[in-house]
Amino acid sequence: MKPYGIILAATAVYPHPRAQLARLAERGLLHRLADGYYAVVPQDMVGHKWMPGLEAAAAGIGAAVYGADDVVVMGISAARLHGAIPRALATAIIAVPQQHRPITLADRPAIVRFVKRQTSKLDAELIRTELGSTLVTTPEQTVLDLAHRPGLGAAETDVPAAVTALYARSDKTRLRTLATEQRRLAPLRRAEGWALAR
Q1: Which backbone phi and psi does 93 adopt, to 5 degrees?
Q2: Which among 76, 94, 75 is positioned nearest to 85, based on CA atoms?
Q3: Which residue, 51, 57, 68, 87, is the most exposed by fewest CB within 10 angstroms?
């Protein structure tokens, strides 16, 4: 998978990368996401107001730190990319191989939270975003993750409806297999309770 168009100031090759990156941002070629993290502005948007979606920005930041193959959008952020949460959120949840401190974004009132997981063991698929394709947990994996930790990401009120929407499009055999393999049978029962109650 190709890395995102995210530049991490610490890895730039210039003698004074922050000053160089700030100049490129002033010219509209880069968009400052957070302290030390910049997104390359798409060519057709140079000179226009542009800001990537929260989930794409979070995946890009994660890819800049860990590499695109070790970052998976999960939880409420995956539900949002699957269209199960229509409103914009203020928290993005990203699965990564090692714990990382949360990153507060500079371009909006939002935060990226990192969750340490064995990303290679997550059931994930590629979804295209404005910054490129990223791994996102499948609807089945997202159902289990949301039901397991409904408070992760501070969108608890949205979780039952999101689980219900994702459960409706999930392959029930695959869902049960994942729940068994990942020891998530209790969250599966919780998800089924939410889905069947609506």
Answers
A1: -115, 125
A2: 76
A3: 87
